[in-house]
Amino acid sequence: MKLDKPVTGGPCWTELGTTDLAGAKQFYESLFGWRTETDPRQEAGGYTVAHLGDAAVAALTPLYQEGQPVSWNVSFAVPDADAAAEQVTQAGGTVLVGPMDVFDVGRFAVAVDPTGAVFQLWQARSFAGAGVLNAPGALGWVELMTRAPERAVEFYTTVFGWTVNASEHYTQWGIAGDDFGGMMTMDDKFPHEVPAHWLPYFAVVDVVATAGDAARAGGTVLMEPTSMPNGRGLAMLRDPQGAVFGVYHEPPQP
């Protein structure tokens, strides 16, 4: 991710919905060095914000609806949540929740793209989203896993105006050419019951060490640390409650 702060159309926030908020807090605090604060207001429903220093970087929440899966969700910044929700519908997606106000901090909606991946729209008011991106312990990349990549490209370029950098093996999403994420096609290796979804990757200093720390803390290494030709490293992990996420390291630029 070349972005170091939220920009219009780009990923601005990520939230974990979990069955065990206390256990998730302990796991991610130990893994990323987060400091978590739970909103004490009853109407906040246990919403917990994770910080690196003074910067908010992610949220952890209880499951709010019956049937909601344990998973990480990705939010994209929009100037007008209502207008963006209308664009989602016109482009073939579905708005599941909202748009609705969240206290005085912003306005949001939950949507699903035509390929089945759920994502969120965030219109900032007093809260713009993550205070830092692409730094150790913060959101470092977002990846769409889908069985219909061509339909996904059509949808997201229409709704957000993303640029597309496609190669034979991988497609990258960008804002005016600054890549922040990618897309993988779900093949027969993925169980049929696993829907299309957005996956967050958190930047880390050492992918191998982080994967080891996750395993020792009760998580599972789904994909062993892998080095890419460009020097990047990544691994796929699952937390003790079942939420899947990635970790990612990009070497310093010369």
From TrEMBL:
InterPro entries (alphabetical): Anthracycline_SecMetBiosynth, Glyas_Bleomycin-R_OHBP_Dase, Glyas_Fos-R_dOase_dom, VOC_core
Name this protein carries in UniProt: VOC family protein
Domain VOC, residue spans: 10-124, 138-250
Xref: PANTHER family: GB|AAF24581.1, GLYOXALASE-RELATED
